[in-house]
Prior knowledge:
Elements: H1 2-8, H2 11-40, H3 46-104, H4 108-123, H5 126-136, H6 141-168, H7 172-189
Helix pairs in contact: 2-3, 2-4, 2-5, 2-6, 2-7, 3-4, 3-5, 3-7, 5-6
Amino acid sequence: ARRVIRVLGDPQILLVTLSYLVMNYVFYLVTFWSFLYLVQERKLSVLESGWLGALPFVVAGVAAAIGGRIADGLRRRFGDRTGPRILPLVTLPLAALFLYLTVSIEHAYPAISALCLGFACVELNEGNYWGVAMRLAPNDAMAATAALNTGGNLGGVLGTALVAALSAEGRWDVVFTTGVATSLVAALLWLTINPGRGART
């Protein structure tokens, strides 16, 4: 129990978890609110919104699989400390850009393309977060990944009430602006994370 408490109180694991929490705000935003956005803001039919709203998940699923391989390659090429930082520091600001374009582009189909690319940029990082959490606590990986997973779910819990309130007012511009902000915060937190340091056990 003492080892678990020590891992859960480790500043590096908490930083990775916090970054994952704010990144997952975007995950839950796209997962649960894309359909309503397309109906309310883009004025698409229910049927069209249904199948177009599924496209980000297809793209993100492919990105998550590819992202794990990219993360492994970067770690091998640049080492445990620098390698895992590169992917989020590049892709999460790109996600912020695509989320901004989602609500800035006038026509629906290009906007949906931007939404797909933004979600893909987020999901490219999935394997990297989990891999770093396990390497930070190699002897207590279950506790580390449990903390990470809890943080990710909290991103959805905290975001749901906010998005629900904003969407009820038709403020989709603000909804996606918060996604832009959380993507950038998630990226910036990686500047404070040392992925090459194993947690004390």
